[in-house]
Design goal:
Structural class of chain A: mainly alpha
Order of helices and strands of chain A: HHHHHHHHHHHEEHEEHHH
Strand order of the largest sheet of chain A: 2-1-4-3
Largest sheet of chain B: none
Number of strands of chain B: 0
Radius of gyration of chain B: 20 Å
Helix content of chain A: over 70%
Shape of chain A: elongated
Distance between the termini of chain A: 34 Å
Helix content of chain B: 55-70%
Shape of chain B: globular
Number of helices of chain A: 15
Number of domains of chain B: 2
Oligomer: heterodimer
Largest sheet of chain A: 4 strands, antiparallel
Strand content of chain B: under 5%
Distance between the termini of chain B: 35 Å
Strand content of chain A: 5-15%
Chain lengths: 375, 312
């Protein structure tokens, strides 16, 4: 049972590492303009990961709850990280993406209004940030420090730093979404509305509409398709096959202005978000790496290693090594304690040890029983 | 291994396997014995199931079977120690110092056998056997070769004490050889100590009295007539407390430090991150306990500095 638990924990750690790579790949695919086929795979894989982590959260929560430790798991054992990095992502990110993929353009355009589309995209973008909280989950699964105290301390401080980064960015995105902070979508969509109106000014004639659309599209590369509402396409930037190959639902916007439907390219917004996402991902990873490779060794050197040496010296009769005290840290409380250990405790222990049992016992009773059974 | 399997006596077989367990594998015979005896002494009552598994009669308590096993362990340790002494005499001792301390004469052929006999006699005596554990560990290690040449290069306290106060004109290699012999002769000082006289405290390491050593010196020297009397004297006098006996020769003081260091040598010990090295830690603790153990504090200071400078 314990072994199965360890295997599952290992699977979770591997899944977290993979999902972090997936996060990076997701943004990179948008930035590099990968094909629909490749990006669809990334969306399905993302859905699989989100389902996996949602199941993991419910399983952990159920097990903790049934043992009367639900609150402890959620608040003290970082269950809230499991929650934030699973269910909101599934509901706001991967599931809408996957459903849009299944429904094709119909879902996005069928939402009825441009504002609704924008809200979905906004929610998706906000939720994506939560994926980086999974970095924090790694700390539970990987034993990177010998001392449990160092492990717990560095995990806590990393959780605080990453959570502040993620939650602040999330908060800023929400404020951008509700208009407290102006985002890049506002001037972008304002511009599209203006240009759609200018196209509609050409009147109902398809030829005039096509001529006006071509003229405006020449100065605005985001105009993709223009057609009278419910009518045939009068102007298109690309052939239909190109749209099928490179446009996923959500890559384009749609609006209607005085009986004229205009489809426009939203990928510049997605590219901008993906660029931000990669920069943010790197910032989070660098923060974590800094804690792991700069802070954790310093913590070990200055706190947990001296404590470990003193603990062994006090609990093992044959362990008589002194704590190494760096001269520049000699005034630290821990090293002041270590100096006392070196100069008072160990000499006393040496005196008492020589009066008592001699060297400590490397042998255990179990060793003798095993030997007796074999003899 | 085959010899172990073919041994007809289950107690001997058990003792042999016990002393070869992974936890003890890297230790010397007397260190293994000390560990095994400690387990028996401290955990005696809890070991009744072990004694039962060995087919021993436990109806009269644990002491009797524990004593039988102790005897088997000691016999096995003797067997192992004989091999260690042979290795020591053939590989680690050259007696190259002989001309320097024996009026120019070379070491006679029987000198090594007489030293072996002295060690074996010490091993047969409970208190001297305890002293022998540290001496053998030090003599089999390379501790002399590490510290004496360094002290020679420094030309400080150890060098001055040996060359200018004791007037020994030996090379560092010869001096290492001499110190090794001093350390091996040292347990003989306890040959006439009555077991239990030291109250189990610091058995084999308690300082002895100068008058007492003067009395036993002729007897010990007679047991090893090929060895220079000065060597025997230095070995025995390494048990004198310093600075209590100001006339103790520098080599004796050095030998006392080496024997004590040998007692604490642990080849399997791993230096934890955040800890100082084994030698540096030991010398630093002993600097503070120098008076307690009757060791030369200034020599310990120098050894500590050498250990610190060399990362030992």
């Amino acid at each position: 049972m314990r072994k199965a638990g360890e295997v599952l924990e290992t699977v979770v750690v591997v899944a977290i590492i993979l999902v972090l790579l997936h996060t990076l790949l997701d943004d990179y695919s948008i930035l590099s303009g990968w094909s629909v086929h490749a990006r669809s795979w990334i969306i399905w894989v993302g859905l699989g990961f989100d389902i996996f982590f949602t199941v993991e959260f419910f399983t952990r929560f159920y097990l903790a709850f049934s043992n009367g430790r639900g609150s402890r798991y959620f608040f003290r054992e970082r269950g809230w990280v499991d929650f934030l990095a699973s269910i909101p992502l599934l509901l706001l990110n991967s599931l809408p993406h996957a459903l849009a993929l299944l429904a094709g353009a119909g879902l996005v355009s069928g939402l009825g209004s441009f504002l609704n589309v924008l809200k979905v995209i906004k929610a998706v973008r906000i939720a994506r940030i939560l994926r980086l909280l999974r970095v924090v989950k790694l700390f539970r699964g990987i034993r990177y420090a010998r001392s449990p105290m160092a492990q717990a301390h560095v995990s806590t401080i990393t959780t605080i730093a990453v959570s502040i980064l993620v939650l602040w960015t999330l908060g800023a995105s929400v404020m951008e979404g509700v208009g407290i902070i102006p985002g890049i979508e506002v001037p972008f969509t304002d511009g599209q509305l203006l240009r759609a109106g200018a196209i509609a000014d050409a009147g109902p004639s398809p030829a005039a509409l096509a001529q006006r659309a071509a003229a405006i599209a020449a100065i605005d590369a985001t105009i993709l398709v223009v057609r009278p509402q419910g009518g045939a396409v009068v102007w298109s930037r690309y052939a239909p096959a190109y749209y099928r190959q490179f446009f996923l639902p959500g890559d384009y916007g749609y609006l209607v202005s005085r009986g004229v439907e205009v489809f426009y390219d939203e990928r510049p917004l997605a590219v901008s978000a993906a660029r931000d996402g990669i920069v943010f991902f790197i910032a989070v990873v660098l923060t974590v790496l800094a804690f792991l490779f700069i802070y954790a060794p310093r913590f070990a050197l200055q706190i947990s290693d001296p404590v470990h040496v003193m603990r062994r010296g006090m609990s093992e009769s044959d362990y008589n090594l002194e704590v190494r005290i760096p001269p520049e840290r000699a005034d630290d409380d821990v090293f002041e304690l270590a100096a006392l250990y070196n100069s008072v405790y160990l000499p006393l222990k040496d005196r008492l040890g020589n009066e008592g049992q001699g060297p400590a016992m490397a042998l255990k009773i179990g060793d003798l029983q095993d030997l007796a059974d074999k003899t | 291994m085959r010899a172990v399997e073919s041994s007809p006596d289950p107690l001997s077989r058990f003792a042999s396997r016990l002393l070869e367990t992974p936890a003890l594998r890297l230790l010397l015979a007397l260190q293994k014995e000390e560990q095994a005896m400690n387990v028996l002494r401290i955990n005696g009552p809890q070991l009744i199931p072990v004694f039962t598994s060995l087919g021993m009669d436990v109806t009269r308590g644990w002491r009797e079977p524990a004593a039988l096993i102790s005897r088997a362990i000691r016999a096995e340790a003797d067997r192992m120690m004989a091999a260690e002494i042979t290795r020591l005499l053939s590989e680690r001792l050259a007696f190259s110092f002989f001309p320097g301390v024996a009026g120019g004469r070379q070491a006679p052929a029987r000198a090594k056998e007489e030293l072996r006999a002295l060690i074996v006699r010490a091993a047969a005596h409970p208190v001297a056997r305890s002293a022998l554990a540290g001496s053998l560990a030090a003599a089999l290690s390379d501790i002399m070769e590490k510290y004496i040449p360094q002290a020679w290069e420094r030309k400080k306290y150890v060098y001055v004490e040996i060359t200018r106060v004791q007037h020994l004109a030996l090379s560092p290699a010869d001096l290492s050889d001499l110190t090794r012999c001093v350390v091996l002769v040292r347990p003989a000082a306890y040959l006439y100590v009555t077991p239990g006289e030291t109250g189990d405290k610091d058995v084999g390491y308690s300082p002895l009295q100068e008058q007492y050593l003067s009395k036993i010196l002729p007897g010990i020297a007679a047991q090893a007539p090929s060895l220079p009397r000065a060597l025997i004297s230095m070995g025995l006098r390494s048990t004198l407390a310093f600075p209590g006996s100001e006339s103790v020769e520098a080599i004796s003081r050095l030998g006392a430090i080496m024997a004590m260091r040998g007692r604490a040598l642990s080849p399997a010990a791993v230096v934890d991150r955040g800890a100082d090295t084994a030698d540096k830690s030991w010398f630093n603790v002993q600097r503070r306990n120098a008076r307690w153990h009757g060791l030369d504090g200034r020599m310990l200071d120098e050894m500590y500095t050498i250990a610190a400078e060399n990362g030992w």
